Amino acid sequence: MRSSETRIPGKASAAPRSSGVDTNSRATPERGFLVGIDYRRRAPRTSPGKVAKGSLTGAQAARDSAATVPGGSTTPNIPQFSAEESLGELRALALSAGAEVAGEFLQHRDKPDPATLIGKGKLAEIAGAAASVSADLLLFDHDLTASQQRNIEKVVNIRVIDRTQLILDIFARHARTREGQLQVELAQLEYMLPRLGGRGIEMSQLGGGIGTRGPGETQLETDRRKIYRRIRHVKEQIENVRRIRAQQRQRRESVPVATVALVGYTNAGKSTLFNALTQAAVLESPKMFATLDPTIRAVTLPSKRKALLSDTVGFIRNLPHTLVSAFRATLEEVQRAALILQVSDASSPLSAEQDAQVDKVLKELEVEGKPRLRVMNKIDLLPPKQRDSLRDDAHRVHVSAMKAIGMTTLLDRIDQLLSDDAIHRIRLRVPQKEGKTLAMLEARARIYSRAYKDGLVELEAEVPESVVRRVKEWVVG
Q1: Rounded CA gap, 392 and 401, in Å?
Q2: What's the topology of domain 256-417?
Q3: Which three-class secondary structure state does DSSP give residue 179?
Q4: Model-level pTM?
Q5: Which sequence spans correspond to the domains of the chain?
């Protein structure tokens, strides 16, 4: 059984040009026609761990690795991305890439067509629909093989982009630092390599002279050799970046300051939370993958301890493996963090599904066992009755980074969970003439009582271990 739905907003007018499209790089945005496919109709009900091959919903990843919470328990009944919701995510990705959505096509199939993914008949129908709205490119919510991409392009006569290629393009658009650009380039090269396709002997480099005439090295082989050479060069540069990062990390770790890493699904509000906690000015944007380049800032905890907060790239369902591999230099900040803040969009009906996708990437990074605190963000978008019913617990805090709700509770919980530079409650008698020491205690300790007697200042305070070592000669009791 097959069915399909075609949606063309306003025929040729498409989506409004003011709907969040970045037009800085092009005078006129490219018009994209979205294609989604749902293969779930004949998924075996007796095996909840699998769905039909090629599913666009990403639900198989959620079920294969059910969301885990600290303590090893699993979250049952994780909601799945429907085909419509998956297509909606593709729409958001297209807008983030600077495209204008000219139309959408959603087809339900029993199984994928090996040659064109959706079948020749539907492909001809899509070609007509895309031409009627003057689409510049076709965006598939699916990964295409090289042969499928070529077969589709022959019919539609416009560029064809699959989901991975679209995400790579967004990463390339948003990378600002040299490190980020290198990592994106490596991912693009590794994606491109298996998709090189020669056109046969007409691409050969012909030799000259007796005994040298013949096909010689084909253009395909030449291109592959050039890409391999470039990949080696980029990997060497990224290795230099990793070495520099390791040196910086060693310097940071020589001082007892813990690192807290923010992770979460793309557009969960990580950068907004980062700014709310650190008073930084990291770019906040509703677009997907607005943050690519890692940023680290200091934050002062209620105990007066310092911690380093690291903002990282957002995750997404079916995150291309080439991106995870290429961004390992950046994601090492997550691997070395003392605490992971997993930020979720509490207002999203797919929050549990998105968390499951984040859990999957964290497992791939081998950090699923690290201390973790769930931060449910955007509670200001919830109905008042639902917001009033929320309760924090040992592993979950509810906040609104945009409205600065719950920030004090979050900082307290971070303070409790960090074991680096442990806090000690002590009593001290410090001579009044030790002004520098008293000023340091004022700045770095939580003082509960203070009394002046015989030229001494008697204090009871909670003090980090690094400070205790510096004032141990005045510790009493």
Answers
A1: 16
A2: Rossmann fold (3.40.50)
A3: helix
A4: 0.68
A5: 3-161, 256-417, 423-476
